[in-house]
Amino acid sequence: MDTAANARDRVRQIGGTADPIDALRAVRRHWRLAVLVALGLPLLSLGALSRMRPVYTATGTLLYNPVDFNPKLLRGVVETRQVTDALMASQAAILKSPAVVARVIDGLDLGASPEFDPARQRPSLLRRWLGSAGPPLPVAPDALRDAVTARFHIDVPAGSQLINVSFTAHDPALAARAANAAMAAYLARERRESLAVLDRAQAWLGQRAKATAHRLEALDVAIARERARSGTVRGAGAAPLTNEEAGQLTGSLAAARADLAAARARLAALNGGSEAEAAAAVAPEIAPMRAREAELAAKLRALGSTEGPNYPDIRATKRALAALRGQIAAETGRLITADRMRAAAAAARVKSLKAELAAVRDRAAAQSVRAAPLARLEEERTAESDLLRAQTEQIGTLESHSALTRPDARIIAAATRPLQPSGPRSAAILSGAVLLGLCLGVLAALLADSLNGSFRSGGQVREALELPCMALLPEVGRRERRGLSVPDYARRYPFSAFAEQIRALRTGLWLAPGAPRSLAVTAARPGEGKTTLAVSLALSVAASGARVLVIDCDIRQPSFDMIFGLGGLPGLTDHLAGRATLEAAIHRPALEEGGSLPDVMPAGAVATEALALFMSDRLGRLMAELHGRYDLVVLDLPPVFALAEAQLLARAAAATLLCIRWGQTPRRTVAAALALLDQGGLRLAGAALTRVDGPRHARSGFPDSELYHPRYGGYFRL
Question: Which residues form the AAA domain (predicted)?
Fold first, then answer.
C-alpha cells in the first residue's frame, strides 16, 4: 500500500494546455467565461468612448532659417549658427517653454476656459449623485500651465528645418488659435532676441569707435611733437634729403669706377698686352699709320724677293718704313701718357665720391635714428585710422541691415480649424479592445482551467491518483426525477444514463481481480453523492436477483430512515452493542411495484461508544457472518474527514470505493483523504466521479466526454 506521502505525491496537476488542441478544449470548457471577457472589454470600451468628448488637433508649420551673419562684419560680436539636430531640439524646447506657454494662456485667456478650469465645468453625474461640499477651486497657475503644455506637441522631422506645432483641444477653433498663438509668441521672442543682439553689437562697436578716435587724436599730438623735436623734413618724393643725396652719389661713384676701369684696361693693353690688344687700344688714333706700315712692309718683302739689298727702291722703302714706325711709337707714347693722366683723375674722383658717400650715409643713419619714433607713431596712426574707418562702416551697416531685425524662423503654414476630430480613435480603440478581449478571454479560460483543482474526467483520476475511475454518475435534477429519489429513479428507469453508469460500476467491480464480497463507499466531504451511489448500487445488484445488504454506517447523519421509510428501527450500533439481534437489525423494505430490494441495516441509535464498538472484534464477526449470508454487502460510510470511524469501517470491508464530486472536490482534499485511508492499510477498489454535469462534460473535450454526447441519446430512454 502507498503511504500518505506517496498518496499526496500521486496528486499532480494535469496540464491541459501543453497541446494546442487541449488549449482549445480548455477554452471550450470555459466558453462562458471566455465570451464574457471577450465581449465585456469591447463593451466597456464602447461605453467609455461614448462618455468621451472628441478632441481636435490643429497643426502649424515653422521654417527655422537663422540669420547668417557675415564674420567680417561682426567678428567677435555674433557667431554664425549652423543648423544641427541639437539646435532644432532646442527650438522645440523653446516652443514649449513656460514663457511661450504663458503668453498663449494670457493671449487666449485659457484660465477662463471651462476646458482648463474645473470650476467652470459641469459637475459629473457621480458628483451630482454624491453631492459636493462646495464648488471646485479654480485651477492653480502652475497646474494650468502644465495642462496647456501637455496639449502641445512639437515635432521636428529628421534632417529638416521644419517645426510642426500642434495643439489638441475639445474646441477645434481653440486648437487652431492656440497653435497660431504659440508660433506668434515664438516669433516675437526670436525678434526680440535679434533686436537685443543688434543693440548689443551697436553699443559695443560705438564704444570701440570712440576709444579708437581718442587714441587717434593722441597719436596726432605725439607725431607733431616728435617732428618738432627731431626737425625732420620730408622731400618731394616723401623721402629724406640725405637719402636723395646718397642715391645721386652712388650713381656718380658707379660712373667714376667705370671710367677708372676703362683707363686701367687701356694702359694695361698699351704697356704689356699683346700686339692685338695694343692695336685695339690705339686703333682709333693710329690706325691709318698702321695700315701704311703694313703696305710698306709688304712692298719691302716683294722687292726683296726679286732684288738685292742695295736696290734703291729697297733702301728707300726701308727708310720710309723706319720713319713711319717712329711716328707710331711717338703717338703711342703720347696716348699712354694721356691714359695715365685720365686713370689718375678717375681714381681721385672715385676716392672723393667714396668719402662723400660715406659722409652722406652717416648723416642718413643719424637722421633715421632720430626719425624712428616718428615713423612708429605714423604707423600706429595709420593702423588706428584704418580701424576707425572699419568700425564706422560696421556701425553704418548694422543700422541699415534690415535682415538683422527679422526672427530666425517664419510661418510657412498657419494652423487652420480642423474639420475632423483627432481623437478618440474609436475604430482603433474598439479594434484593439476586441483583439485584447479575445486574448484575455482565451487567457481567462486557460487560467480558470489551470486553477481548477478538481477532477473533471476519469482520465484525470487515473493519472493523478493511479486509481481506476469506474463510473461517471450524472447529476439527476429534480425536474428529471419527477419527485422520485435518485435510487428510485435508477430503479424505475433502468435504461437511463444514471442507471447505465451504476451498471458500469458493477462491471468494473466484477472484472477486478478478486471481486469483493463487501464494498465500503466513502467520500472526502459531505454532499459528494456517496449515499446515492451506495443505495443505487445495492438496488441494481438486487434487481439481478443477488442477495444484497446495504448498511448505513453514517451514525451521526443517517439517511436510510428517510430513503427506505424505516422510522427509527434498530440497526448497526444496536446490534454491535447487544441491544438487538442480527435479524432485528436487518430490515426488508416493502416494494410497491414488485421486484426485489436489498436488505437494509440502518445506522441505529447514536452511541457515544460507537468508536469502541467499531474497534471491537464484534464488527469483524458481523462482517464474516454477513459475507456468508449475502452476495454483496455495501457499507455507506461517513466522509473521511467527518468521523474517525470511517477508517475502521472501511477496513472491515473487502474493498473501498472513493466518491469524488465532479468539478467540485479539490484534488488536495482527495489526496488528504487518501492519506487517511492509507493509514488503515485498506484496499482501494477505485473511484467514481459523482454528480457529473452531463451537458458541460459533453463539451469539455475530455476522452470520456463521449459518454454524454447527444449521439448516444438513442441508447438511453426514460
Answer: 519-651
